[in-house]
Amino acid sequence: MRRILPVLLVLPTAWLLAGCEPDGNLDVFSFSKPAEGQLSLAGPVATNIVFPTGVSRASLQVTLDGEDVTDHFTKSTAHLPVPAGEHELIATLQVGSQLLTATRHFETILVTEAGACDGLTEQACFDLNARIGAECEIFNRVECALPYPSSQFLTPASTPTGVRIDVPQSAMPVVFGPIQPPTSLLDGLDGFSPTVQIAMHFPQGVDVAASGLSRLLPPCLGLAGEDPECIAAAGPPWDGVRTHDARSLDPDHPTVLMHWNGERILHWTENDVAPQESGRQAFILRPGESLIPGERYIVAVRKLVSPDGPAVTAEPAFAALRDERPTDIPQLAERRQSMKRVFKRLAENGVARDDLILAFEFTVQSDQTLTQQMLAMRDQGLQWLADQTDPNFVVDEVIDEGDCSDPEVDVWKVVRGRYTVPLFLEFPPTVSTVGEHTVDSDDVPVQNGVWEDAPYHVSLPCQLHPDLGDPDADVHTLLLGHGIFGTGESMVRGIPPAAAQVMDFWRDPPAPYAPRDTRDWNYVAGATDWSGWSSSDFVWVGGAIIGLFSSSLHQFPAFPDRHRQGQLNTLILSRMLNEGHFNAHPEFQDALGNGLLPVPKDDPDSGHYYYGISMGGVQGLFHAAISTDIEKFGIDVGSMNFSFLLPRSTQFNTVNPNDIDFRSLLENVGIRDDLDVLIGVGFLHELWVSADPAGYMTHTVGDDLLPGNTFPKKLYLSPAWLDYQVSNHGTEITVRTLGLTSGPGSVQKGLVGIPDEPPGTSLDSALVNWDTGLHDILDPTTLDQYPPLAPDVVQDPNGDPHGARPFIGATIQTLMEFLQPGGRIENFCDDDGICDASQDWECSAGVSDTGVVSVGCP
Questions:
Q1: Per the domain annotation, does 769 fall within a domain?
Q2: Share above pLDDT 70 across residues of the chain, in percent, rounded to a whole number
Q3: If you average pLDDT over residues 453-471, what whole number do you get?
Q4: Which of 135, 160, 130, 131 is closest to 145 using CA atoms?
Q5: CATH no. for residue 557?
Q6: 523 SS3 class
Q7: CA 244 – CA 62 distance, rounded (Å)
Q8: Of 453, 515, 633, 669, which one has the greatest count of Cβ atoms within 10 A?
Q9: What is the DSSP string of 795-816?
């Protein structure tokens, strides 16, 4: 036995030297981690080697891209620090006379913004990359927030949609000052805005025209480099000019916006204003109408062409899920199943998975989230008014507007005063306070006392003058809405006399003008200030909400809250006008003590109306959705969706160096980069939309009304063609959302989804786009004088038609015919049937305190 034992002890060594392990399998020598072709984050990459059973590991040598990393291994595992790039791992092991070799190829990526690691140690960069990879949307590397909006920023919650927004602080642009605007402000929202701007990024850039994408198309001017699909046009009406077509609904369109049920959504695309060479140019998909609150949508992109010609390719993170590539990036592993469902829904609707260069999904805020605060305030506020036993207003001043014995004077007097409203803010809405809503545990506003200083102005027409009026006159009440940073006083003292003077002029004009059968001014017109948008709020917005050199954007929730308080103040004033509350004061009574304001009737078309200009048009649309008193609304240059309107408005970004604009204020607090502006405004709009018509427009006309509303609204939308301040495209989105048609006189025709009405049609609601005659879009020398189709502002600040349209005789007649009991929208552009400034009656009149001083087309 003693001779046999040494032989037995030597046998295993002999087997190994002969190249045979005890189990006879050397092929197991391999990498189990990373997987072949794996995508990982730059940083520590888990690595594991499988060894044959029983072999010595002493000869192991491992290289990463040619560099020896053997010392990183403990037994069979290591976490190798790997920079971004494509990599090759090679492991060798000598087993007897055999050299075993294992290889693995994988890729690592940075998901941090370009330059984010500059100045950081390698480990600090890896740590940042891991954090961004966990909390940001990584389908686009350029910014944490992109693509936006994405379900990556939604988390399960007990909300009407089953989710809520959860955006990391890394996604918010950084501002100057001690307090950053916290993304936690969005936590209570159960989805994204129904008019959200859908933003993406492709490092190669996108040639929108060469890609065959739906886009806004200009008229053909014969200029070098103009859009190859420009619209041939000879003159008004402008059919299909400066709008988009319906190709986004085609099965093969490169971009897809799709409801989860498979319905394609009309949209157009555009590049943001940042130059492509900056590497930070967003590619934007614009829904052509509001999305449905509470619903789920998919965005898909395929077959794009870059400006240099090659096809646009997917970034690695998205491509890994599309191609089912192995990955150990936790976010991608977590999203694999949800993206499989997205790919499946797309495939079921004709969008091939292999074609995709980007796809993502998102959920829209519910009606409850969008509207519950405003509706709760409305219902509580109107009930408060109904419970008052004493008048809730005082008269501070009475202003005689003229001698009613003069036939050219139409307004008798203006009464100025203050009225009391329920307060739903922490503090009254003054320039020195930053009050948010006082709310209960369900985030529903609760009344916080009253505000006794809401201003009002009410003008009485000469028809109500006790001695010089007409006792048989059919007088109505008219609620007026002022423009941005204006006042109710400016509307009450401006619109009635100006409109009346234009009508008086055309009723009996001097030669060579032909007389018109125009209406007399027969309205008691009242207005208050829009809290949040009045002249006294300009400094408040600049200092308390945006900030001057040091950001105040963390206080932004006070901005939409104040707007809702402003709407409530207007609802209270509207009810006071409609129910004759002002008749309790002698200034609103005749000599016998009878009230001068008409008393209410059961029919909503019995004589109480609304007319708003500019911001008063925007806020008027909001008011239309929530009002229970007014059926008919005259909406001058109205629109919705501030995240869309702001970049195209000279109120936001003007080329006039003497003007102060919102873009300048944002730059002063550190938001200067175009992409940061796009993202920052997008985030702010998620809060803003519930105090914007965009949160309500799907429930304004038709049968699907908001709770408490008993009749659909009738709307006359009258934008100014080529408006510098309120984009025609925003109005188009609004009208399509409302489901309205285009009236016979409209200067723009062929808008997708907005049918053109035939000549001679009178309507309850309609869009009529008015040409003020200030611009000729077929003159290539005047390109700087009308708004670009890109999301930018006009380059020549002169010649804005925004304020000209309200003083056109034909449109005043249209408005006054509409805002009467039984009135409808008729076409008074009677020379060629188009409101194209082709006759003086269709052009703006110059009006002064003494009457019309000029008439004529430019």
A1: yes
A2: 97
A3: 96
A4: 135
A5: 3.40.50.1820
A6: strand
A7: 59
A8: 633
A9: S--S--GGGTGGGBHHHHHHHH
Count of domains in the chain? 2
Q: Are 269 and 215 in contact (CB under 8 A)?
A: yes
Name the nearest CA neighbour of 838 among 847, 846, 829: 829
CA separation for the pair 136, 133 (Å, rounded) = 6
pLDDT of residue 24: 53
Q: Given its phi and psi angles, is residue 492 left (phi above 0), alpha (psi -120 to 50 degrees) or beta? A: alpha
351-355, Cβ contacts within 8 angstroms, sequence gap of 24 or more? 351/256, 351/300, 351/302, 352/302, 353/322, 354/322, 355/302, 355/303
Domain boundary among 65, 86, 109: 109
229 Cβ partners below 8 Å, 6+ apart? 209, 217
What pLDDT digit, counting tens, does each position of 737-769 carry? Answer: 999 999 999 999 999 999 999 999 999 999 999
SS3 label, residue 552:
coil
- List the beta bridge partners of residue 848: 851
Q: How far apart, in whole angstroms, are the C-alpha atoms of residue 162 and residue 451?
A: 37
Residue 82 has pLDDT above 90, yes or no: yes
Contact 616, 528 (CB under 8 A): no
Q: How far apart are CA 700 and CA 685, in angstroms?
A: 21
Could you tell me if residue 226 is inside a domain? no
Give SS3 for 53.
Answer: coil
- Residue 81: domain span: 13-109
Q: Mean pLDDT over residues 363-383, rounded?
A: 99
Residue 146 has pLDDT above 80, yes or no: yes
Residue 367 resides in a domain: no
Buried b (16+ CB within 10 A) or exposed e, 364-381: bbbbebbbbbbbbbbebb
Structure confidence at residue 65 (pLDDT): 98
Dig out the tokens for 22 from the structure.
């005890």
The larger pLDDT score, comparing residue 147 to residue 274, is at 147
Cα Rg of the chain, angstroms? 33
Cβ 515 vs Cβ 506: under 8 Å: yes
Residue 20, pLDDT above cutoff 70: no
Q: Report pLDDT digits (tens) over 795-820.
A: 887 889 999 999 999 999 999 999 99
* Structural domain contains residue 83: yes
* CATH code, domain carrying 30: 2.60.40.10
Mark which of 93, 109, 125 sits at the end of a domain: 109
Q: Global pTM?
A: 0.94
Cα-to-chain-centroid distance, residue 68? 54
Q: DSSP assignment of 159-179, as one string?
A: STTSEEE---GGGSPP-SSS-
Report CA 658 to chain centroid distance, whole Å.
28
Q: Which residue has the higher pLDDT, 785 or 313?
A: 313
